[in-house]
């Protein structure tokens, strides 16, 4: 954990030191107060030390839970931000602003050149059109032509680099020299294109082919977000590219619609490329000319151009601000040949902070990421929210599924699960169902375009750390969802292949399953079929009925492309155990849990998949996510065993059991504290009766609350005893509280707990028990009672009111009944008097304001428990204290 906090700090200091060393040379001057800091942290030795620490962390953290490490990282970064923010003279930097934004495409917005994608699409088209026996020869011929073109480009590029490097330096930036360099670069670009086109490597491809291929293009991290924000801020945004097919650019950036200046494929009458392109955007000079045309319009701020290669050099230097992302190796030699300089982006930030103009002739700036560019030019993503950096990270999960009008499954179950597992949930509805606990009555699919629109609206604004898919009724919907996942580069995808409802109603047509295998499984982090679904997806004649069959199914489904396959064994008849099989391509993980016998099973599949998505959204490893999700589901089912919702067999369960326990027959505000009995094993032993017999008698006699107190038994025995007592009391509407042992209270499903002043604090107890449990606290003074109320207590037990032998260490209240009255007046929650109370004095206790009396030996030490309780009730009734 210490290393997890240290490693990012080391890397941060190394980065800042090296950036300042390069961007602000005067910072290394001996006279500069920060020179020693910059020299130390900006040195290669310190960078190597930071890398060494990261390697040690990687080795030691292998297999450790991810979320605690992330928490340490985030806390370390928060503290560093506070440290730097507290330095004198430092205030939040204002964004530079943008009047016109222009960017290159290949290797600038994308992680790599997309030209090979166009070439591969052309070959695939030719291969499809060729006879099968000819395809092998065709592949070899095509690869030979491609090797020849690439060899030529490599040789010519090497010669061009040498010519550029041979140019002597000039005294400062030389615009005429720049024009000469651009002419040489443009001549190279034209000749290489001619060589590629004459080889025929793009002949026969269609615009549709390249558009489809563009779906697999990976954009640089943060680039799409930058374009989205720029358009939202109404910044004129354009892409200027020498790409051979502008359809590739439009498809890769969809649904964003910047202006695009690029080439098109030259098409013949058959709609296929004739081997060339149409358009005048092939060279460095062409890109410079395109920028100059765009500069003719009105602008509200500086013009910014972002590129990566020597082909961008003219446009980079003509813009007010030229920014380089990445480097293809030719840019720096070209810039040096024109006596232009390449400086780190922080130099621009420093100049702008000092009030200098952003335009510096002959200078371009190098950025490490699009996030850096966005911060400098546009500022924080949400200007309306002050202090965004201090806000906690919110895990976000999107469900793409059908609606269940009965609330037990579908998006309703998913959203409940997301919230229960600590994530912000969003939804895109694929179908509307009319259903209840008796089954699905009707299904109404949602229009495909509207499904796509829902997904786009969510992902392009809020974003999602994980997406879970459920009911996808047909092939068209599956393909549309898969396309949106590709376009938006979703990292964590949980596919729950919902095909048939629990009641047997078909939720997808025959095409949906095949489309899932082909389109969604390759995108999935994890797929979660149950046994009937796995059998249907694999086309098996009968449903899988063994663990060995589950493993075989997982292996086969893994072949369709997901990273993990979870075959759920809920339909498997196994003795007292639920077994799921998780396969990661190497290992079969058996996820086992106790079998919960309940009829409240509607929505279990949706819940498990949604919970897995929530755990992935929080950054957990897939295996850990599955285990956590199953543990949550099992506990939800256990807490819902006795629920009766609806009259049919498809009964839902309580997703929010941690905050709302419906299995209890009372609400906290309805608790009757009048006759609160506290069990005593010693009294029961002396009278020769069991604990359950004593509690049964107390409840029969009219006890309104039972506190189970056991000091000398182990936790397992205590839990079993508590469950037995709950089974007696709860049907009569009598809550059962556990003394001291919060773990037993939670494990046994008790209605709450009672703690003393020397036990865990009321605030901590409340965090453990949750908001719906009853929490009582023992107090002796007004101050203790007020504090208990402030920390979340629902009532306090004040005493001892009278001397008592039951608890030898119990001190009496200072002034007895008078102190009790003061405590009652000081708090708004019920006060129960305890200590030495019997039928002879109970009325006096209630008469001073107590909501009830807590009794021990006067009930459980009596020969007849039920009679003793009844006499206490009668005594209070006679004194006018009964309701």
UniProtKB/TrEMBL annotation:
EC number: 2.5.1.3
Annotated ranges, domain Pyridoxamine kinase/Phosphomethylpyrimidine kinase: 404-649
Domain Thiamine phosphate synthase/TenI: 675-859
GO cellular component annotations of the record: cytosol
Keywords from the named record: ATP-binding, Kinase, Magnesium, Metal-binding, Multifunctional enzyme, Nucleotide-binding, Thiamine biosynthesis, Transferase
Residue ranges of domain Thiaminase-2/PQQC in the record: 2-84
Pfam family, one: TMP-TENI
Designated name of the protein: thiamine phosphate synthase
Organism: Tetraselmis sp. GSL018
Record lineage: Eukaryota, Viridiplantae, Chlorophyta, core chlorophytes, Chlorodendrophyceae
Gene field: THIDE
């Amino acid at each position: 954990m210490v290393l997890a906090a240290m490693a990012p700090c080391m890397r941060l200091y190394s980065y800042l030191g090296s950036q300042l060393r390069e961007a602000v040379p005067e910072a290394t001057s001996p006279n500069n107060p920060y020179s020693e800091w910059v020299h130390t942290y900006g040195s290669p030795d310190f960078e190597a030390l930071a890398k060494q620490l990261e390697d040690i962390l990687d080795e030691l953290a292998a297999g450790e839970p991810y979320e605690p490490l992330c928490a340490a990282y985030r806390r370390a970064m928060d503290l560093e931000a506070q440290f730097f923010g507290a330095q004198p003279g430092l205030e939040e930097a204002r964004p530079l602003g943008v009047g016109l934004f222009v960017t290159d495409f290949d290797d600038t917005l994308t992680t790599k050149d997309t030209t090979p994608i166009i070439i591969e699409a052309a070959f695939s088209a030719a291969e499809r059109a060729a006879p099968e026996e000819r395809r092998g020869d065709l592949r070899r011929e095509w690869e030979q032509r491609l090797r020849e073109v690439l060899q030529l480009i490599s040789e010519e590029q090497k010669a061009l680099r040498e010519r550029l490097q041979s140019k002597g330096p000039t005294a400062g930036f030389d615009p005429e020299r720049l024009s000469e360099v651009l002419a040489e670069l443009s001549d190279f670009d034209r000749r290489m294109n001619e060589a590629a086109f004459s080889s025929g490597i793009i002949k026969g491809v269609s615009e549709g082919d390249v558009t489809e291929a563009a779906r697999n293009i990976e954009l640089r991290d943060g680039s799409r977000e930058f374009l989205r924000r720029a358009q939202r801020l109404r910044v004129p945004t354009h892409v200027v590219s020498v790409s051979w097919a502008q359809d590739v650019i439009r498809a890769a950036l969809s649904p964003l619609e910047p202006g695009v200046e690029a080439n098109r494929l030259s098409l013949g009458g058959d709609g296929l490329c004739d081997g060339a392109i149409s358009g005048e955007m092939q060279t460095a000079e062409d890109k410079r000319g395109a920028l100059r045309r765009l500069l003719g319009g009105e602008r509200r701020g500086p013009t910014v151009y972002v590129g990566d290669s020597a082909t961008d050099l003219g446009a980079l230097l003509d813009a007010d601000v030229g920014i380089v992302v990445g480097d293809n190796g030719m840019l720096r030699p070209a810039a040096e040949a024109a006596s232009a300089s390449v400086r780190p982006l922080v130099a621009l930030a420093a100049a702008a902070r000092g009030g200098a103009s952003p335009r510096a002739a002959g200078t371009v700036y190098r950025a490490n990421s699009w996030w850096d560019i966005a911060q400098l030019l546009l500022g924080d993503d949400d200007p309306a929210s002050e202090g965004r950096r201090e806000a906690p990270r919110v895990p976000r999960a999107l469900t793409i599924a059908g609606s269940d009008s009965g609330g037990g499954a579908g998006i309703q179950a998913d959203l409940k699960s997301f919230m229960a597992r600590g994530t912000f949930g969003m939804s895109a509805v694929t179908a509307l169902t009319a259903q209840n606990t008796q089954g699905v009555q009707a299904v109404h699919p949602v229009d495909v375009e509207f499904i796509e629109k829902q997904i786009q609206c969510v992902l392009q604004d809020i974003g999602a750390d994980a997406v879970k898919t459920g009911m996808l009724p047909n092939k068209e919907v599956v393909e549309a969802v898969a396309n949106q996942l590709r376009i938006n580069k979703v990292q964590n995808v949980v596919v729950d292949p919902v095909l048939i409802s629990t009641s047997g109603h078909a939720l997808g047509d025959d095409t949906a399953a095949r489309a899932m295998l082909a389109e969604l499984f390759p995108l999935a982090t994890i797929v979660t079929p149950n046994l009937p679904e796995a059998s249907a997806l694999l086309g098996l004649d009968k449903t899988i009925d063994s663990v060995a069959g589950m493993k075989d199914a997982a292996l086969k489904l893994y072949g369709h492309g997901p990273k993990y396959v979870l075959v759920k064994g809920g339909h498997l008849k196994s003795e007292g155990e639920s077994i799921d099989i998780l396969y990661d391509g190497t290992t079969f993980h058996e996820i086992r849990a106790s079998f919960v016998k309940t009829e409240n099973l509607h929505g279990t599949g949706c819940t498990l998949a949604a919970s897995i998505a929530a755990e992935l959204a929080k950054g957990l490893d897939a295996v850990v996510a599955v285990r956590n999700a199953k543990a949550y589901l099992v506990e939800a089912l256990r807490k819902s065993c006795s629920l009766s919702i609806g009259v049919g067999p498809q009964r839902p369960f309580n997703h929010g059991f941690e905050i709302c326990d419906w299995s209890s027959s009372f609400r906290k505000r309805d608790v009757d504290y009048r006759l609160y009995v506290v069990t005593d094993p010693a009294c029961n032993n002396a009278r020769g009766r069991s604990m359950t017999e004593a509690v049964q008698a107390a409840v029969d006699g009219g006890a309104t609350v039972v506190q189970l107190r056991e000091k000398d038994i182990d936790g397992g025995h205590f839990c079993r005893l508590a469950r037995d007592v709950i089974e007696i009391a709860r049907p009569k509407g009598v809550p059962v509280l556990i003394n001291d042992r919060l773990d037993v209270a939670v494990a046994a499903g008790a209605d709450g707990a009672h703690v003393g002043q020397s036990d865990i604090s009321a605030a901590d107890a409340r965090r453990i028990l949750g908001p719906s449990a009853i929490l009582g606290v023992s107090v002796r003074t007004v101050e203790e009672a007020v504090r208990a109320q402030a920390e979340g207590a629902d009532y306090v037990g004040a005493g001892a009111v009278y001397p008592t032998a039951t608890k030898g260490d119990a001190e009496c209240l200072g002034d007895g009944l008078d102190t009790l009255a003061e405590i009652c007046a000081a708090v708004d929650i019920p006060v129960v008097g305890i200590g030495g109370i019997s039928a002879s004095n109970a009325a006096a206790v209630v008469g001073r304001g107590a909501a009830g009396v807590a009794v021990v030996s006067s009930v459980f030490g009596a020969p007849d428990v039920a009679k003793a309780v009844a006499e206490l009730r009668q005594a209070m009734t006679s004194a006018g204290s009964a309701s």
